[in-house]
Amino acid sequence: MSGMNISDRTPEREYDHHSYTGHKGAYFGPGMEFEPILDVDYIDQAWSKPGGCKLIKSHEWSYYLGEIREKFPNDWIMMIYRPDMASYAWWHEAGGFQIQYPNYSAYKNSGNMLSEIMKQNHCILEFGRLNKCKWEYFTSEWICEKFGESIVVDKTFSDILVTLV
Known about the structure:
The protein is an alpha+beta fold. The chain starts with 13 loop residues before the first strand and ends with a strand. The protein is about 30% helix and about 10% strand. It has a two-stranded antiparallel ribbon with strand order 1-2. It has a two-stranded antiparallel ribbon with strand order 3-4. Helix 3 packs across helix 4 (about 110-130). It has five helices and four strands. It has a domain at about 10-70 and about 80-130.
């Protein structure tokens, strides 16, 4: 997308599985290269170039959605929802704790991972409800409607919904 700062993308911060490039760029989370700290100067350390629109990714942000909205009132919050068991199954299919990047070791075991998925999904759905979000499929049309960009989405997953706040 035009205007995107992708200077957080390095070979060490990319993980491919199947035919899907699942992880690109810096992720913020417990025990990861960058902790989920809501400080602009800290967050900016993940990018080698200043400026531009940055996609700041973290599963943990689900716990801070209200605070994010308060601290960054002019910024978009894009939320992605996939039902608990589908998320859990996909995570295992993609490699589980063997995923090269990001590092999920802070979750310790599969039971804790499922518990975190459930809590994070609850936070996402509740924030979405409070903000009267419209959940939609991630498609080329959605990107064009929301961002005015023509980008081809190779695959639309029937169990993944997105929204913008």
